[in-house]
Amino acid sequence: MSTFFTAAHYDGQKAVKRAVEVEVMGPQFYVVENAWRSGPFAFADVAYVTKQGDADVYGLAGHDGWRLILSGPIPADLSAMLPAPRKYGGWVDRLGLGKAAIAFALTSAAAVAVVLFSPQWLAPLIPDSVDDSLGDALVGDFGGRFCHTPAGDAALQKLVASLDDAPQDLRVEVANIDMLNAVALPGGNVILFDGLLKQARSPDEVAGVLAHEIGHVRERHVMQALLRQMGLAVVLGGVDGNSGALVNNMLAMSYSRDAEAEADAYAMQALGSANISPVGTASFFDRLSQLDGSAGVVKDNAGITGYLSSHPLSASRKDAFEKSIVKGKNYKPALTPTEWTELKTMCAQDREAKSGLGFDFN
Amino acid sequence: MLAAKDMGESMNDEQLQPHSAFRFHGSWQEFARIAFPNLLLTIVTLGIYRFWATTREREYLWGKTEFIDERLEWTGRGMELFIGFIMVFVLIGLPFIVIQLVSQGLIFQGVPVLAGLLTFAMFLSLFYLTGVAYFRALRYRLSRTYWRGIRGGSDDPGFQYGLSYNWKWIVGWLPIFLMVPWAMISLWNDRWNAMSFGPHRFSATAQWTPLMKRYLLFYLVPFLIFVGAVIFGISMAASGGAPAAMGGAGMAIGGILAIVAVLIFYIMLPLAALAFYSKYFRLAVGGLRLHTLEFAFRARSVDWVLFFLANMAIIICTLGIGYIFMPYRNWKFFVEHMEAYGEINIDELTQSQTVVEKHGEGLLDAFDVGAI
């Protein structure tokens, strides 16, 4: 018993179009044009290709270019044997556009959430050896830019030891670079730039900045940021370049703001237990705020500009450090005047330390 | 035999055969029903759906394009483009991130020369891969384009083309960019000469010398404006009417002139660039043959200018949403100006025996140099 349907057909061998009849025999069928007959083919091998006008176009597995073009409504007997039309692609067609969109949105939100929050728990699980070798690879001897004198090193060591209980895991160095900055890098590396030492008016100011960077190390912020950046790069890898980078930067920035606040809190505590006054750090941020212009911002509006910069506004940090002053506490200077002079002039004294950034080729 | 359009036709015969061998039947309303769901799905999947979105758009655009008497068919799959993207990410993206980290570390450690060499090597290999990407994208698109059940393709993997791409562009740039038209045409020919459709190989024999006049026009616009400004200034000074001598009014005139000069620069330069590109595309397509078929692209500079102005107007007036219609606009512009002459023997047009790669144009996608 066989049924016939009319259709257009390309056999995929030649570009000749045939007006054929589809002869259905159970799970198989032939295509027939007058005396020309091709088949049998299995319905199981038929794949939906596309819709062309009011016609549905089907292909056949293993037959390149083989096409069966059925115009108009397909008879129920035949349509039961043929694969369903495809519109958006597998999952969306199965769920429907609305439900699929909601499901995708939830999955995306979950993926972003995992990437944002997991580094906090993952970072401590990264073995110290990995952290150390990453630090060594990044920092090394910093191109010979680290300054050393016996007295300066001793002063720096004293400062570190007063701020941290386990100074042996830390590697604090002074780099002969004239920038008002300090950085925390993987492997417990902290680098103070000589420009910062020159600008500082007291050892207490340097102690505050150093405690802040040690805070980054102890809170494992560097490894967290690395993991988060890598995760975001993967998750947002599908987004077009510019918008992806924008979202990435905004997310990363809001996290670095949290990290800065955490490091500040750590610094205040460390200064407190070292008996070093936070006044110096506060006045240091006060001078910085004159530089970045945030002193002029009305406090109620500070949220907007503060949100856009990766560091909290210097002015608000100054307030925080001022508030951490304990009245009547007997603070002592972080270093003696001699030690402070030795540290401040370490780079000037060390003739072997190279200067400047790595970009000049001399 | 199917006649595309006779070669020797004059303009008067147009009434007899009013349309080109290529006809476009799409409408932007229909396209909107694809483009808006695409936008939604692309956003909620953080961009991953865009491979399937591209595929749906191409299915529609190809299916609405008629060549002689039958529609084209796009058989590429979103998954292929996705796999291509993942391959590029793993094979090229990740190694490059590592190289960048290493070279940053090298700068930190005071070996900037080594870091510079590493960065240069990275740049060179990207340059090479861009060429390979252009080639493979064209190959991929031809292998997924069917007409009457027959597809195109190429057996050349494009690695050799990547080298040609490098040396020809370098030769194009070296004589103060004067050989750029030669590089463009010569690479177009290289690319298309490696492609085929059905059993027939494309032949691309476009000439680059007719392109030089337009190129020099584009090349010289900045100089002409500069020379014009200098001559104007000298004549002003010679006639004793230097702007400064005229006080406030003179300053105002000077300011207006400066603005006019800047406007001329920003309007003339894109216009000259479009005039050049229009000629390039006409020459390139005009040099293309497939067995007994010849091709032509009829858009003149004016058409290109109007096309770009309309695109800009659409994007601005819709506050950017109109951007999702650009694939539709580009394809429509392309098809409506394409023309083919000659005849095809349908019995001779047999299936292509070229290899079919299972991955899409990931490279091109990654380098953001997608064409149409």
TrEMBL record, chain A:
<keyword id="KW-0862">Zinc</keyword>
<keyword id="KW-0482">Metalloprotease</keyword>
<dbReference type="GO" id="GO:0046872">
    <property type="term" value="F:metal ion binding"/>
</dbReference>
<keyword id="KW-0645">Protease</keyword>
<feature type="transmembrane region" description="Helical">
    <location>
        <begin position="96"/>
        <end position="117"/>
    </location>
</feature>
<comment type="similarity">
    <text>Belongs to the peptidase M48 family.</text>
</comment>
<protein>
    <submittedName>
        <fullName>M48 family metallopeptidase</fullName>
    </submittedName>
</protein>
<keyword id="KW-0812">Transmembrane</keyword>
<keyword id="KW-0378">Hydrolase</keyword>
<keyword id="KW-1133">Transmembrane helix</keyword>
<dbReference type="GO" id="GO:0004222">
    <property type="term" value="F:metalloendopeptidase activity"/>
</dbReference>
<keyword id="KW-0472">Membrane</keyword>
<keyword id="KW-0479">Metal-binding</keyword>
<dbReference type="GO" id="GO:0016020">
    <property type="term" value="C:membrane"/>
</dbReference>
<dbReference type="InterPro" id="IPR051156">
    <property type="entry name" value="Mito/Outer_Membr_Metalloprot"/>
</dbReference>
<dbReference type="InterPro" id="IPR001915">
    <property type="entry name" value="Peptidase_M48"/>
</dbReference>
<feature type="domain" description="Peptidase M48">
    <location>
        <begin position="167"/>
        <end position="320"/>
    </location>
</feature>
<dbReference type="Pfam" id="PF01435">
    <property type="entry name" value="Peptidase_M48"/>
</dbReference>
<dbReference type="GO" id="GO:0051603">
    <property type="term" value="P:proteolysis involved in protein catabolic process"/>
</dbReference>
